[in-house]
Amino acid sequence: MATIHRTAKAAWQGTGKEGTGQLSTQSGVLKDARYGFQTRFADGPGTNPEELIAAAHAGCFTMALAFQLQGAGHTPESLNTEARVSMEQEGSGWAIKAVALKLQAKVPGCGPDEFHKLAEAAKANCPVSKVLNAAITLDATLG
């Protein structure tokens, strides 16, 4: 069985509310990207863990759907996915409760029933969907 490893690093200075951190990824796409309380709970400059989970889920699902479509003999012209992560307060902490995937797709030769079946399979089977303990919904539009 093959195993793939990917890494990211976080560094933090200061308290939870006033401190700041930097995130870096193995690939170098993120290098000392700023994050902190303002980027997580307000609209300050920088990124946050939930935004990165949304990006990971959108990317994972979209690639999984491309493979599903390929396996069914279809080549997508375009697949555009937005993932919206919803975090709710639980007692003194927070939890990711839901992810809403919104997909706009152009897939020549693929009918709506087959498309929705393949999209649901991609949602259920992409590795990021499998790791999230959240309700995952899909609004898929074939145009």
UniProtKB/TrEMBL annotation:
Ranges for region Disordered: 1-25
SUPFAM superfamilies membership: OsmC-like
Superkingdom of source: Bacteria
PANTHER family (UniProt xref): OSMOTICALLY INDUCIBLE FAMILY PROTEIN
UniProt-listed NCBIfam families: osmo_induc_OsmC
Protein name as it appears in the record: OsmC family protein
Organism for this UniProt entry: Craurococcus roseus
